[in-house]
Please model this.
Amino acid sequence: MLIECKYYDVAAKEMEELDKQIAEESENLSEEELQLENDRRDFQLAEIIRSFKEKEKMKEIVPDPEKNALFIRLQRSSMELAKLLELNIVTMKKDDDTYGYIELSYGISWILSDSPKMCKKTMAMLYENADQICSEVKDNCVVQRFEFELEK
Model:
C-alpha cells in the first residue's frame, strides 16, 4: 500500500496564490495608499525589533557546561561520522560557549544495516539534541545544519 501526502506542494501552491493576491491588491492601491501601507508595515517591524532588543538586554546569557560537553562529544562523533560516510562537515562553536552548529553536506548518503552502529546513534543524537535543524539543497548537495543553544 502506497500512502502519499504532498503537504509541501499544497503549501507552496497556497503561498503562490497568496503572493498573487497581494500583488493584485497592490496594483489596485493608489501610490499614496501603497506608501501608507508600507509605512505601517515599517513601523510594525521597527516596533518588533525594538521590543526584541529590550528583551535581549534583560536576558542574562550564561554558558551551560553540560550542554557544552554534549556539543563537544557530538562534534567529535560527527567528525567520525563524516569520515566514515564521506560527508562534508563544518562545525563551529562561539568563543563565549553560548552557540554552536554542526553542518553536514552530501550528494547522497546511506546508513545501511551493516554500517557501524555509531553512525545511527550519532545521527539520532544530532536530531534529538539540536535546538534548530535546517535541511536544504544548495549547490546540488543536501545540507543539514544542526544548531545548538549552549546557554542556560
